[in-house]
Specification:
The structure holds two protein chains of two kinds. Chain A is globular. By secondary structure, chain A is mainly beta. Chain B is mainly beta. In chain B, strands 2, 4, 5, 6, 9, 10 and 11 form a seven-stranded mixed beta sheet that branches. In chain B, strands 1-3-8-7 form a four-stranded antiparallel beta sheet, with no helix packed on it. In chain B, β7 and β8 form a beta hairpin. Chain B is globular and about 40 Å long. The chains are: A mainly beta, B mainly beta.
Chain lengths: 110, 114
């Protein structure tokens, strides 16, 4: 079993819709969880971090964490074509050791 | 805050030559940095973990004599691709860890070997 698993997609949503990205992880001791966005030909950039169970909202983005189910998700409301990118889920399994999912490619169609 | 500068952003070199890529943490100290490579439309692939003042730890299948890593200070790690060949052409990305606050990535270096 991979340490961090994501549906590779591609996920396609119409402009204005909610995009839902999901991620599961295997290490129950993980403390920190992150979502990165990577545009084609660019390096990943951090868009959300979450450390405790529940929801965390930042603008159009909401991260959701359920440690009991070992599940973290990212919701993007009012999706825009500029949100089209690959989204990477990342989990800190130890202090300086973060593991990445393979990424989900999102396309927002105008 | 938490900026990682990577240089150069693009480099074209001749086959057989060596190329050095620099990764600097500008506003924090990074005892641990990471080097990745990424092929088009593929996932990030961790190449090695760079530890300040000690030898790098390479992932299985990564040739340590070909990809030389030096992490001589708390703010600088370098990756040297030695005797580069066209198959080494790729997008190389560094990152620095801020512990539980995640990784910050450099902007990447696109290497083309001709």
């Amino acid at each position: 079993q991979k340490e961090v698993e994501q549906n590779s997609g591609p996920l396609s949503v119409p402009e204005g819709a909610i995009a839902s990205l999901n991620c599961t992880y295997s290490d129950r001791g993980s403390q920190s969880f992150f979502w990165y966005r990577q545009y084609s030909g660019k390096s990943p950039e951090l868009i959300m971090s979450i450390y405790s169970n529940g929801d965390k909202e930042d603008g159009r983005f909401t991260a959701q964490l359920n440690k009991a189910s070992q599940y973290v998700s990212l919701l993007i409301r009012d999706s825009q074509p500029s949100d089209s990118a690959t989204y990477l889920c990342a989990v800190n399994i130890e202090y300086n050791d973060m593991r990445f999912g393979a990424g989900t490619r999102l396309t927002v169609k105008p | 805050g938490a900026v990682v500068s990577q240089h150069p952003s693009r480099v074209i070199c001749k086959s057989g030559t060596s190329v050095k890529i620099e990764c600097r943490s500008l506003d924090f100290q990074a005892t641990t940095m990471f080097w990745y490579r990424q092929f088009p439309k593929k996932s990030l692939m961790l190449m090695a973990t760079s530890n300040e003042g000690s030898k790098a730890t390479y992932e299985q299948g990564v040739e340590k004599d070909k990809f030389l890593i030096n992490h001589a200070s708390l703010t600088l790690s370098t990756l040297t691709v030695t005797s580069a060949h066209p198959e080494d052409s790729s997008f190389y990305i560094c990152s620095a860890t801020r512990g539980l606050y995640g990784y910050t990535f450099g902007s990447g270096t696109r290497l083309t070997v001709v």
